Every structure is written in structure tokens, then in C-alpha cells.
User: Fold N-acetyltransferase GCN5 from Streptomyces violascens.
Amino acid sequence: MVLRPIKLRDQRAWREVNRRNRDWLRPWEATIPPPAAGAPFAQRPTYRQMVRHLRAEANAGRMLPFVIEYQGRLVGQLTVAGITWGSMCSGHVGYWVDREVAGRGVMPTAVALATDHCFRTVGLHRMEVCIRPENAPSRRVVEKLGFREEGLRPRYLHIDGAWRDHLVYALTAEEVPDGLLARWRRARQSHHGNTGNTGK
Assistant:
């Protein structure tokens, strides 16, 4: 599995995966709320507009946009956004993955890789993941990794056409001194050993 920066040339593969998973992803994807009176109407960006925006935010130190590759093909996207420096040194993670590879450990591995990069290379101290309470698969991702549930943020993000509540999960660098990926690998090995090494 590879986590790497998103590129303009990923457009064909990204659009194919996103299109094929449209119905599966729609209940969990951010949407643009109706504009306030007098504000310009905001359309969903094209792929090129999205990548240019992500790159600009990355260059400004506010975002880390990645795609996820599994067995040589693009299967999802992970973005560390809202990066704040100063006395906070924090960011939050958002992600989606192809339904065909869900449940294989791809997304927990991607989140672990991104978190280790942010803690060890970028210099962040705290990582957050905000998830709709109804999104059980996404909650399992962070629970497997040992993120702490910290509480509910009412009407936190505009998702699927309405303002939705989100649960906040968080992790700080001190909680994973040996790295989150190493902890995740140990947990998987322990689980496989307890299930007779079936690989499930």
C-alpha cells in the first residue's frame, strides 16, 4: 500500500473510482451549503480545480493531500486538513476508499502512515478525525487505531445536503511514541494469531 501526493495525472483513475463508488460515498461526503444572501453560488469543483486548490493549501502549509494506492492502483483519497501551527500544532484527517477494498486494512494503514508522517516529519502534536455517528465503518477505522472518542460536535459539517453531527476522535504524539503504524501492525498480528492466523 502506498500513500502519495495527489497529482493532476491521477484524474482518470480518481474519477473512475469515485464514479463507481458514488452511491456508497454520497451519505458521508461533504457538500456545499446553500449560499447566504448575496453570496456567489458555489459549485462542486472539477477534478483539476480540486487538485489546484489542494496544492495551493499544501504550499501554504495548511493541508497534506494524498491518494491511496493498493496493489498498484488508486483506491482512495486521504487529506490532512485544517493544519494549525503555533501553540496548537494540530490537523484533522478526512478519507474515503473504494468499496472493493474496504475491510482489508487499507484505510487504517493509510491513516496510520499519515499520522506518523504528521507527528514525526511535519511536527504536528495532535490529529483529529471527525465522523458522523451513523458511519460505523469509518468509526471502526479510528477505533482499531486507538484514537480516543472525545465527544459530539453538533451540526459540525454540511454532509449529503444538511448540517450533520460528528463524533470527534483524537490522538496526540505522546500516545504513540513508537509510531501508530507499528502499533497497528502489532494489533493486526495479535488478532491474526488469536484467530488461528486465518488472515481475516
Observations:
- The chain is about 35% helix and 30% strand.
- The radius of gyration is 17 Å.
